[in-house]
Structure formats: structure tokens, C-alpha cells
Amino acid sequence: MIILGYWNLRGYGQSIRLLLEYLQVEYQDKLYHENGEEWFGTDKKNLNTNFPNLPYVIDGDVVVTESKVIPIYIIKKFKRFDLIGQNVDGSYNQNEITYLQLQEILKELLDKLEAQARIPSFKEEKEKIFNEQFNITFEKIKKQLGNQEYLLGNLTYVDLYFYEVLRNFQLFYPKIQIFTEYLKRIENIPQIKEYIQTKENKTFIFDSMKDKYYY
Ligand SMILES: N[C@@H](CCC(=O)N[C@@H](CS)C(=O)NCC(=O)O)C(=O)O
């Protein structure tokens, strides 16, 4: 059985959990306690890879780390090339490129939010920051989405990632409604719906980390 190892929080692990749920793969959601004892004390040293980190996936003898790479491993394993915008025969597909672009853009957006939210003045200035910095990117993504159901037309992993980015924005910007229909659409995918209703860990960030953010 695939083991997904990550801290007991959403973070870099959540969209990978959503992918495994979407694919209805049986997996162990190995959650590490925030005190880090189990991870740093034992498992990190014993993980059979030159690049031990969280999240990781263990699948038999295969160990994969790096949050952008793990989904590719899973998607290739289950031959769902469509979920990374690829054609089965490897021939050129513009979606494969747009997928990679979106992944970078969305990661930057999330990193920027997390960096900004660690600055004490964020609490007072967050609306201004949203309008001056984040909204520009959201407008571009809106254009990409257009009238399609998902960012590349059909569902890909980047939608599950974008979903998680939007959930983060909801936490820091509860009053701003963005991509509401799209969010609902993702949440209504049967496997995702089931996961949210039954297993989703509502704890967003460690209690200890909450102190690091201003919202
Ligand atoms: N580039 C890596 C970064 C991973 C990373 O920074 N992981 C953090 C949590 S988000 C961590 O605590 N890693 C455990 C460690 O450094 O041993 C990825 O995208 O997976």
C-alpha cells in the first residue's frame, strides 16, 4: 500500500491526499506530530532516498519526495496521463505545458501569501495587498478558466492544487469570494466530497504555527 508521509497538517501534503482520494487509491496517511521526534529522530534518517523530506511517498521499494514530483509519480503509476495534461503516447499537448505553467504560478501565489501573512502589518493591510498583488494573478487564472469547468478543460492535478491554494486564501481572506463556483465544483466531485465529509482534517495549521501568521 502506498504510504504518504507528511506533518499532521494540510500544507504541501493536502493536494496529494486529494489526488489519492480522487483516484480511490488505498493509502496510509502517515501523519507526523509537530514535535518532529518521529520524523527527525528516526524516519528521516531511515527513509531510503538521498533526498529525505516531507511529504514523501513510499510505494514498495520506491521512495519519492518533492511535492511537485510525487503527483507525477502517482499519476504515471496509475496511467492517468490526462491528470497532468499529457497524451498517452507522449505526443505534444499544449495542456501539458500550461499545466506546468499553472503549477509554478499557483505555487508562487501560495508562497507569497504565506510570506505576507507572516508580516505583522498584514492584518491591517491585507485587503490592499490582495488588490495590489494577488488579484492580478487571480485575474489571469480567471482568463485561463474562462467558461471551462476546470483550468485545462478536463480535470487535472493542478485543479486539486488550485483548490488547496483557494482554501488557504479563504482562511486569510474569509470575506473575499473568489472562484466560488469552481470551488463548489471541485468539492462536488464524488470522491472529494466523500473525503471532505468523512476524513478531511479540519486543522489547517499547527497551533504552534498559528502564532506565525497574522489574520
Ligand atoms: N521542496 C520540497 C520542500 C519540502 C518542505 O519544505 N517540507 C517541509 C514541510 S512543508 C518540512 O518540514 N520538511 C521536513 C524536513 O525538512 O525534514 C517539496 O516541495 O516537497
From TrEMBL:
**Matching SUPFAM superfamilies, A to Z?**
GST C-terminal domain-like, Thioredoxin-like
Q: Which UniProt keywords apply?
A: Transferase
The organism is Tetrahymena thermophila (strain SB210)
Molecular function (GO) terms for this protein are:
glutathione transferase activity
Protein name per its UniProtKB record: glutathione transferase
Please give the Gene3D superfamilies that the UniProt record associates with this protein: 1.20.1050.10, Glutaredoxin
Q: PANTHER family under this entry?
A: GLUTATHIONE S-TRANSFERASE, GLUTATHIONE TRANSFERASE
A Gene Ontology biological process noted in the UniProt record is:
glutathione metabolic process
Pfam families, sorted: GST_C_3, GST_N
Checking PROSITE patterns in the record gives: GST_NTER
Q: List the top taxonomic levels of the source.
A: Eukaryota, Sar, Alveolata, Ciliophora, Intramacronucleata
Q: Which reaction does it catalyse?
A: RX + glutathione = an S-substituted glutathione + a halide anion + H(+)
Function of the protein: Conjugation of reduced glutathione to a wide number of exogenous and endogenous hydrophobic electrophiles.
The UniProt family comment states: Belongs to the GST superfamily. Mu family.
The catalytic activity of this protein is classed by the Enzyme Commission as 2.5.1.18
Q: Which residues form the GST N-terminal domain?
A: 1-82
Keyword Transferase in record: yes
